[in-house]
Amino acid sequence: MVWRSAYSSGVPRPLMRGVAHGIIGLMAPYLIWRVRKKPRLRLMMVATCGGCICSAFLHCVPWGQRNWEQRALTIDFIGICAGLTGHIFSWEWDLQGFYSKILAGAALLNCLLYTVVLLCKLYQEQEMLVALRGFSGMQLGLQLAMLVAAQRRMRTMPRVLASIGPPLALAYFRRFGAFDAEESGPLPVLAGVWSPHEWYHLMVASVHATQLSELHKIEAPEKEKI
Known about the structure:
By secondary structure, the protein is an all-alpha fold. It has helices at about 20-35, 40-60, 65-90, 100-125, 130, 135-150, 155-175, 195-220, 220-225. The radius of gyration is 18 Å and the shape is globular. The chain starts with 18 loop residues before the first helix and ends with a helix. The model has no long low-confidence stretch (mean pLDDT about 85). This is Post-GPI attachment to proteins factor 3. Keywords: Membrane, Transmembrane, Transmembrane helix.
């Protein structure tokens, strides 16, 4: 089998789970090349594509043993935090001012600590999905909060969307898309194909498109801004 149909717990994998991530991962070299002259946008694209590759690695590869799936899950979580860190540095690119330096430094330190904590939990053979509900989950939430703070340079309306979008998406995911969710939520789902998990990623993608568009405008040559 070269395509995953279920997780080690026996839970079926929806057909679209991880597919979009895999497509973005395959397109990564081209996407990064396209923005090669815009360093901040390129960093955000690298962070995004890296996270997508980690997620596709988890959801699409048919892991034969639970311990290997737990390792892939750990890599996926680390990829999420590293991706958020890359986004923060995309906004704080110039590191000008005390606030910028503190925010970037705190994000990097939190990401490193998050990685160490998760690797220790993996070594202790803890269940990763459960482990993320504790201290590690708070670390990931802190990273998201720092990203919202870093987006202060966006225009008013995009900044509002980028600020409230991720928390709302996470709340939706926790209620309807988590592994132990008891309801499927208000949005339509298609059994075996599309679930609340996919809706969550679609919500995040819409916010991320706004971020990429804003950075593109910031780095555009003056003649393109007219």
